[in-house]
Design goal:
alpha+beta; FAS1 domain; Lipocalin; 2 domains; seven-stranded mixed β-sheet; seven-stranded antiparallel β-sheet; 9 helices; 18 strands; 24% helix; elongated; Fasciclin domain-containing protein; FAS1_dom_sf; FAS1_domain
Length: 348
């Protein structure tokens, strides 16, 4: 090779390397600029090639795409494997009841929304934000539920708490005792996006924290799937009364569950008659949170049950105030009974 050809080849190599280096120094594909990906949360999940197809289906059917694209949120992401395992277990239960199997597309959108909103927290929360409180933080979801998030340090090389920082994400089952909570670890944390943060839950996570079969089987609405501490007073026709509260019976300590039957109707136990089919009541609530009617929930219920006075739901206090009545044609004393009840959300 002549000297002229040698320098010409060297020049071409230099040009190619220069262009390649310049190309590598510009943003492309999934490489974040600094530590921030230039996508919103929904776009980030959508761009992943595997692992989130079932999750995206639920998000879309539940009507939460816009929430993940525009609002400031932190998402604890369950894997498709954990979602499909929950669905398999649900279908095993259905077959045991003589029912056919279902897919995610067969489950009511309100139920899917209720399930998946437990994973979507309001605001942006990194591990450092959580670390400021030793007992973790009680964070509100976009579905107005409360979840606990606490930072933990893993062990490494046989040394206790010498490893990496991880997050423990817990559903509390309305209990202040941590041993009653259902928890999962976020094994990948602090994926920063334009409108939020993503933490990836471990593959062993139990989707919907063991409640998938209950929630998937029923309709849901804003007020449903809550356990309430209920306080009230039963007024008798002779002027006497009887109060009750969470400490009245063992059942009352667990609170009442509100179950949706439509977008604005609920079924619950009336008064302190836990489990008594005669006192099952149906409540209808309008979009201003006013209770429009209280009536018998089933054919087995006391047909004289009806609304008596002003009743409403207070969103600030997360409390349902009810005033209703029923009639006893016999007994001591016979006549109209009035129930005034205050139901306080137990935070789950």
């Amino acid at each position: 090779m002549t000297i002229h050809k040698y320098y010409w080849c060297l020049f071409l190599v230099t040009v190619v390397v220069f262009i390649a280096c310049n190309k590598d120094n510009t943003y492309r594909n999934e490489n974040p600029s600094g530590d921030l990906y230039p996508y919103n949360v929904y776009e980030y999940l959508e761009r992943q090639t595997t692992g989130f197809d079932s999750l995206l289906f639920i998000i879309n059917k539940a009507g939460l795409k816009d929430t993940l694209a525009t609002q400031d949120v932190t998402v604890f992401v369950p894997s498709d494997a954990s979602i499909q395992k929950a669905l398999t277990n649900y279908n095993d239960r259905r077959r045991g009841q003589g029912l056919s199997s279902v897919s995610l597309k067969d489950i009511d959108s309100s139920a899917l929304r209720q399930i998946i909103t437990h994973y979507i927290i309001r605001g942006k929360w990194l591990t450092d934000d959580v670390a400021i409180n030793r007992d973790g933080l009680f964070l509100r979801t976009v579905g107005d539920r409360t979840m606990n998030v606490v930072q933990q340090t893993t062990n490494a090389g046989g040394v206790e708490k010498a490893g990496s920082q991880i997050l423990k994400f817990s559903f509390m089952y309305s209990s202040k005792w941590t041993e009653n909570w259902s928890s999962s670890l976020a094994t990948t944390t602090n994926i920063k996006l334009t409108n939020g943060v993503v933490h990836i839950l471990e593959p062993a996570h139990i989707f919907s924290f063991g409640n998938f079969h209950n929630r998937a089987a029923a309709a849901q609405n804003y007020w449903s799937d809550y356990y309430y501490y209920s306080y009230g007073t039963l007024y008798f026709p002779d002027g006497t009364s009887r109060p009750w509260g969470p400490q009245a019976t063992a059942n009352m300590r667990d609170g009442k569950r509100l179950t949706a039957i439509s977008s604005n109707e609920l079924i619950m136990d009336g008064g302190d008659f836990i489990g008594d089919p005669v006192f099952k009541i149906k409540i209808a609530i309008d979009n201003r949170d006013s209770v429009t009617s209280i009536s018998p929930a089933t054919a087995a219920s006391d047909l004289t049950i009806q609304k008596h006075g002003p009743s409403y739901f207070d969103r600030e206090k997360f409390t349902l105030y009810l005033d209703y009545q029923y009639d006893r044609p016999a007994g001591a004393p016979a006549g109209l009974r009035i129930i005034k009840e205050e139901m306080k959300l137990s935070k789950n």
